[in-house]
Amino acid sequence: MNWEVVIPLLIFLILVFIAGAYASKFVNTKASFLQEYFLGSRELGGFILAMTMIATYGSAGSFIGGPGAAYNVGLAWVLLAMSQVVTGYFVLMVLGKKFAIMARRYNAITLIDFLKERYQSKWVSIIAAVSIIIFLFSSMAAQWVGGARLIESVTGINYMTALAIFAASVLIYVLIGGFRAVAITDSIQGVVMLLGTIILLIATIIAGGGMENIMDTLRQENPDLLSPYGNDRSLTPLYISSFWILVGVGVVGLPQVSVRAMSYKNANAMHRAIIIGTVVVGMIMLGMHLIGVLARAVVPGIEIGDKVMPALALKVLPGWLAGVVLAAPMAAIMSTVDSLLILVSSAVVKDIYINYINPEASEKNVKRTSFLITAIVGIAVFLLAIHPPDLLIWLNLYAFGGLESVFIWPIVLGLYWKRGNKYGALSSMIGGMASYMLFDKFAPNFLGMNTVVFPILISLVLFCVISITSQKKNENMAI
C-alpha cells in the first residue's frame, strides 16, 4: 500500500468525523429535532451555504467522469462544462428570498413539505416522495460505487473492503450529525476540491512543458481536440446551448440543491453565497475539465476516461501531495452521497412516516425512526453497490434529468404564479417524468438537443394548460 498517498486521505476522513461529532451536539440540544436534523435549524451562513451547494452539485462526474470526457473530446468539453458556472447563482436568484419566506410561512422542513402546503394535495407530496426515493436511491448507489473504486485504485485494497470503508465513513457522520454535519463537512470538502483543482492544474502545466507546448502536442495529434466541436466534430452549437438547460436552468428542480435555498440564515448570507458560489464553481469547473484536456499530452494512451484523474495525479505530483489532491474527488463523491442520504431519509421519515403513517409520533419516536431509516437506507445502498447492475449508470442519469422534469415547474411556478394549482402540478410532474423516460428511450437528443429539453417544455405546457382549464371548470361549476 502506498502510505504516502493514503495518509493524507486518512487525515481528511478524520477531519470529516470531527465535523460530525461537532454537529451532533446541536442535534441533542436544539428544541426541534426535525428542524435541526433535516435543515440545520435554518442557520447556515453565506460561506457554508455556498460551499454546501457547490459540494452537493459537484460529484464523481465533475472530478472523475468530466476530466475523462475532456481527455477524449478536447477543449469543446471544457466549453460544455462551463455552462455549470451559473448554477449556484441561478438557483439562489430564482428561489432566493421568496422560497425562504414561503418555506418559513409553511414551516416546511423538506421540499415536499413546501409542495404539499402550496398545492394542498397529498398526491403531489406522495408522487414527489416516491420520485425522490427511487431516483436518488439509484443515484446514491452509483456514487458509492465510484467512491469505493477510487479507494481501491489508490490503496490497492479489494473492492469490498473499499466499499465498506466508504460506507462506514459516510454513515457515521451523517447519522450522528444530520444536515448540519453534512453542511459543515461539505464546506471542508468544497475547500479540498478547490485546492486540489488549483494544485493539479499547475502541476500538469509544468509537467507538460507549459501551455504552448501542450497545445502544440494536442494539435499535432488531432486539430479538432482544440476546436469547439470536439474531437470528431459531433458537438453542435445547438447541443451545447441546450445542455445549459440540463446543468444550468434545470438545476433549480433538483431537490438536493433547492432544499439548500431553504436553510440560509438571512439575506446577507444568501448574497455572500451567490458571489462565493459562482466564483468557486467557475474555478473548479474550468480547472478540472481543462486538466482533463491537458492530461492527454502528459499521460497519453489512457483508454478508460475514469482513470485519467488518478493516473495524472500520481504521475505529476509527489506521493503525499497526490494524496491531498485525490482527496478532492473523494470529497466530491462523499459530499454528494451524504446530501442524497439525508434527503432520502427525510423523504421517508418526514414526508411518508409522519404525514401518513404515524402523525402523532412523539419527538423521541421521530428521533429513533430518523436514525433507523438513515441507517437502513445506507445499508441498502451498500448491498446494492456490492454487485451494481449495468442499469445503475442509466438510472443515475435518469435521476438528474428526470428529477428536473418532475420538480422544476411545481417549484418555480408554485412560487411566482398564483393560478398554478394541484391539477397543474400533478400533470406537470407525471407528464414531465413520463416524457423524459420516453425521450431517453426512443428519441435521445431529439432534433440535436439534449434529452431533457422537450420533457421540461412538455411539463411547462401541462402545468399552465391544466391549471388554467381546471380553474375555469371549477368556476363554471360554482356558477
From TrEMBL:
Membrane topology type, per the record? Multi-pass membrane protein
What UniProt keywords apply to this chain's record, in alphabetical order? Cell membrane, Membrane, Transmembrane, Transmembrane helix, Transport
Q: Does the keyword Membrane apply?
A: yes
CDD domains noted in UniProt: SLC5sbd_PanF (cd10327)
Q: Which Gene3D superfamilies match?
A: Sodium/glucose cotransporter
Recorded GO cellular component terms are: plasma membrane
Record GO terms (molecular function): pantothenate transmembrane transporter activity; sodium ion transmembrane transporter activity
In the record, the note on similarity to other proteins reads: Belongs to the sodium:solute symporter (SSF) (TC 2.A.21) family.
Full protein name? Sodium/pantothenate symporter
Task: Give the organism the record lists.
Answer: Falsibacillus pallidus
